[in-house]
Give the backbone structure.
Amino acid sequence: TNTGEQNLSPAAVSYLQVFQNGVSCERAITSEINEQMNNYSNEVQPGGSSEACEVFSLTDTCDITVEVSDFLSASGEKDSQVIQLQ
C-alpha cells in the first residue's frame, strides 16, 4: 500500500535481497511473466495497493532468507523472513 503523497512503484522504494546457504541469490530472467512481476515496477497512487514480486535464481531446496529495506535507507533497518522450501 502506498502511504505516501506521490505515485511510487515498489521497485523505486524498496531494496529486496534473497539469500540461500549464506550467499545472495541473483535476480532471474524468466520466459513467463505474471501480473505480480509487472506490478514490481508499476506505480501505485497514494492510498492504492498492489501485490508485487521479483524472481530469483536458487541453487537448491535449502531454506531462503528474504531481506527487505527502504531503497535509500541510511539507517540500515530491514525486515527479514526465513522461508522453508519443499
